[in-house]
Automatic annotation (TrEMBL):
PANTHER family xrefs: ALLANTOINASE
UniProt entry tagged with the keyword Ribosomal protein: no
Family matches, as CDD domains: DHOase_IIa
Keyword Iron in annotation: no
Full protein name: Dihydroorotase
NCBIfam families membership: PRK07627.1, PRK09357.1-3, pyrC_multi
Domain Dihydroorotase catalytic: 54-234
Family matches, as Gene3D superfamilies: Metal-dependent hydrolases, Urease, subunit C, domain 1
Keywords: Pyrimidine biosynthesis
Organism per entry: Halopseudomonas sabulinigri
Pfam families: DHOase (PF12890)
């Protein structure tokens, strides 16, 4: 397949390229920008006048629910949804059933994602066997099977001693570790940010210290062991300050934030909607403001969907009994573009937080447009407002934004030069 994208505004944050031009694609790679190569004849031409062409988005946290939770989603359904959101590379956490702690599970996920063909899936392995926090997984074997990083997610370690030994081992082989800092004893039983809203609603609160105590421990152990580290889904202003201080001291740590944390806060829980039950929880308006400022400054270099699809029954219960999580991967770009509409970021800077930023955090070969490189490209119309939820593709419809408007819409997504999504 030889394809030409004609007349788009091409923005590549990695090279700071930003101009209206043509892209010519063959054999899954970008062959030329501007004039077509000699002898090049396109089988298909996309008229992209008025559209933005960016690198395919890189999402660091997308739960695919397969294997083990087919009622919530599948690799086919959730990667199809990712493509609709402009995502061409995604990292899936190890919370499958069985847990992603063996090469066999990693290979199953990769085989099924390649068969689906909608997006490039990059598995994240379990740091410990069955995520139980006691015995280290076979990290090298998992790395060789395709895992790009390792994590415990929200599952606690058996002790700080075990965590330290795990980080030392990971540092020996230079494999990155992803932390989601939340102290289990401080967060136990909680479901909302500890503050006036939780008190008024009668919800058990999770204090900010549940995040910051765990973060402080993690930063100290990172410094001691020298492990490559990334913090996933930070939520509080104090955590952002701690991260910025660590970065200023030269500690090589990166972080992402869930897109919905930049738009929502605990005050939105007043209607008791279980669609807003997430973990870590929505924090205060002041925390949200600090997260937005950290994205603006680059202290937080990546925005991720933190996609968690659920079957309807998991949310059709009272708030406290509902399963936490939002289905959000197919609206990652539309949600993030509200930051441009709000004047927080210029468009190239926002695209950096969705492409080069997350790719650099885990040293991934993705998120940029280079001659000879993979043709992972997202096209979107910055002038075409869309209604969220129309033609919804994820198996999970647990999204509080459905029915709302977004400032722009993805029109086409290409992964390895293949057109994997085209808007109706």
């Amino acid at each position: 397949m030889r394809l030409t994208i004609q007349g788009a505004r091409v923005i590549d944050p990695a090279s700071q390229f930003d101009q209206i031009t043509d892209l010519h694609i063959a054999a899954g790679h970008i062959q030329a920008m501007g004039a077509a190569p000699e002898g090049f004849t396109a089988n298909q031409t996309i008229d992209a006048r008025g559209l933005i062409a960016s690198p395919g988005l890189v999402d660091l946290n997308v739960s695919l629910r397969e294997p083990g939770y087919s009622r919530k989603g599948s690799i086919d359904s959730e990667t199809r949804a990712a493509a609709a959101g402009g995502v061409t590379s995604l990292c899936c956490p190890p919370d499958s059933k069985p847990v992603l702690d063996t090469s066999a599970v990693a290979e199953l996920i990769l085989d099924r994602s390649q068969a689906a063909g909608h997006a490039r899936v990059l598995p994240i392995g379990a740091l410990t066997k069955n995520l139980e926090g006691e015995h280290l997984s076979e990290l090298v074997a998992l790395r060789d099977a395709g895992c790009v990083a390792f994590t415990q997610g929200l599952n606690p370690m058996g002790s700080n001693r075990i965590l330290r030994r795990s980080l030392e081992y990971a540092a020996t082989f230079d494999v990155p570790i992803i932390f989601t800092p939340l102290d289990p004893s401080l967060a136990e039983g909680g479901m909302a940010h500890e503050g006036p809203t939780a008190s008024r609603l009668g919800l058990v609160g999770i204090p900010e210290s549940a995040e910051t105590v765990a973060l402080a421990r993690d930063l100290l152990l990172i410094e001691q062991t020298g492990v490559r580290a990334h913090f996933s889904g930070l939520t509080s202003a104090r955590a952002v300050d701690m991260l910025a201080t660590a970065q200023a001291r030269g500690l090589p740590v990166t972080a992402d934030v869930a897109a919905y944390q930049l738009l929502l806060c605990d005050e939105d829980l007043n209607g008791f909607s279980s669609l807003l039950h997430v973990m870590p929880p929505l924090r205060s308006a002041a925390d949200r403001r600090a997260l937005r400022e950290a994205v603006q400054s680059g202290v937080i270099q990546a925005i991720a969907s933190h996609h968690r699809p659920h079957e309807p029954e998991a949310k059709r219960v009272p708030f406290a009994a509902s399963a936490p999580g939002i289905s959000s991967v197919e609206i990652l770009l539309p949600l993030a573009l509200t930051l441009v509409a709000d004047g927080l970021l210029e468009l190239p800077a926002l695209l950096s937080r969705l492409t080069t930023g997350p790719a650099a955090a885990l040293h991934l070969q993705a998120g940029q447009l280079t001659l000879g490189g993979a043709a992972d490209i997202t096209l979107f119309d910055p002038a075409q407002a869309c209604e969220i939820g129309r033609n919804w593709l994820s198996r999970g419809a647990n999204c509080p934004f459905i029915g709302q408007g977004a400032p722009a819409a993805v029109t086409h997504t290409l992964c390895n030069g293949k057109l994997v999504y085209q808007a109706n």
